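Protein 1 of 2
SEQ + STRUCT:
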Amino acid sequence: MDPEAFLDMANQVIKLKMFPYFDIAHSLLAALAVREDLGTNAQAFSRKHPLACWLSTMLVIFSGAMVANALLGEPILAPLKNTPQLLVGTAVWYMVFYTPFDIGYKIGKFLPVKLVASAMKEIYRAKKVYDGVTHAAKLYPNAWIIMIIIGTIKGNGAGFTKLLERLIRGAWTPTAMEFMQPSFYTKASLLASIIFVLDKKTDWMSAPHALVYFGIVIFLVYFKLSSILLGIHDPFLPFENLFCAIFFGGIWDSLAKILGRGQIKDGEGKDAKKSN
């Protein structure tokens, strides 16, 4: 592709308006995630506890902005002032849980629809990460770590509110902590936040901003579709294992076990000789 045409495409991606189509895709996947988390009891729960079902879904949809606002000392409920977005989220929630013959859920789960919605969701995620980094940079111009944290949370806020979201539905799962087992989306949002901060605050990125942004969008969309079609859920895992083995004691723990076993075997040999 011609470099100018590629740059023009990148600029078009940056200028995409998220409302309403990308918000619909985001809300659809959020509602599907809540329903799948409920399991086989989803329909019965939605009929018996519609308020809890709605609240948990809205929390997933607006989680990134809510958590970021809480950390930045801003009104936590401010994201709900966007009435059109709230109405879109509510309409999608109703479609997934309450349409006749469960047709809304079946349409959402239909593979072509899910693929398109997932691709749109990743474009939406990149936008949220960038907005989070930009907003934090205005409040704390020299605090890179705050920019990275806010960008990461904006990108995958649902992961950090899973404990509360389940608690609203009456399920207490204290081990569901994103800090203990971060998902691919948290790791990807973290990486995207770091790249956006470096692009914004340093001269290390020689490429135009539009290309950097477009590159992150391609990365997110590619691995999201790969997870659906090919089952590649976490491409970071091999690098994490290698990094932990080198820098977080993995190699030394393995050596200690090997040496410890050798000492045990030597001791057993000496005891055997004594017994003879």
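Protein 2 of 2
SEQ + STRUCT:
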Amino acid sequence: MMQMNNINLTDSSRRENVSLHPTMVNYKIQTQKEMPARFIFECAQKLEMKPLTSATAAILYHRFFRELDDAEYDPYMIACSCLYLAGKIKDDKVRKRDVINVAHNTINRGAPPLEPCDEYWSMWDTIVQAELFIARVLKFDMTIVHPHKYMLHYMKSLQDLFGAKEWHSMPIAKAAAAFLQDFHHTSKILDYKPAHTAVCCLALAFQVYGIQVPLMDETDESTHWYNVFCPELTRETYWEIMEKIMDMYNLETIIGKN
């Protein structure tokens, strides 16, 4: 097994305490297993990476830790490496230096950029080594089918059904996209087919805003609008996926109390 440099991004004993803005997550004290995925999306936003790139990084991260015991590796360093690797896969490349500094500042709120020093070069070497290690653990299979492409297809069909003017006046597209991104915070996204995840994010948006799909009778138990897109999606799986998505917001409540 490849040995990586022993560096831990959340080792607070090596850094000064930085006071946090109340709306910011303190990754040093949060222990929920979903935190590194949240860290990925925060860093990706700061790095101005594309949504599919950050989603790719999250999927790589979840797949990696399904193969290995997460206690053996610093999840935040693996998250950094997944971001860097995803940038290559999606041709949305970022410099290692930028990944290092954004990651360091996200863990240590308000900290200045790292100057070349032992910690900087240790992070650099760890990302390089972890990149290859992640690829090996995943058997060099970097193929990811994202729910996003299905969601875009479904949205186009729904827009035709509602009518362009009414569709654009509703918050469904924005809400569904937000649900999809948030579902990437948990490894449970790996448990479902991308098409099912996409249609359930849309369904949850309709549920939240109390909007009914035209020409569909919700009292008819034999036909549901989502089966037009996913005929094999059972009602049980449909409700299960939406419940798993909503679980992410229960976690958000817990984080907000800490």
